[in-house]
Predict the 3D structure of the following.
Amino acid sequence: MDPLDELCSLLTGGSRVIVISERDVDLKSNSKGNSLFLLKIAEGSLAAGGRGGGFGERKVVSVFCFSSRGGGWKKLFETQEESAAAAFEVPYYVSRIPFTLPDGTEGMGYGVVEPELVRQMAARSGVTFSP
């Protein structure tokens, strides 16, 4: 699957994904470069309640990293190993954020725009971003 298609699918699909982004999430081809991590959260009976913001259990089950430099998106990292995914925690200050899809339509998701957190996650996963 094309990285941009996979990224769009993760953002708009039915699964719960937390976005940790360097910049506002804009997937249009003319947008500035961006790097982001997607933390896929466990589904199940504990996922709906018990914590503020509508998120209950925040167990990360898979992690993806995508980066765009010069207009093209690349997938740089993916893990679904429980031990590796457990090294990534959902920030407690996650809130609703808007994102723009390649066709210009807008959507809403959960996440944060925080370049320093993206750098920390990149170091944890061994990802390097090319200029």
Summary: The longest strand covers residues 60-69.
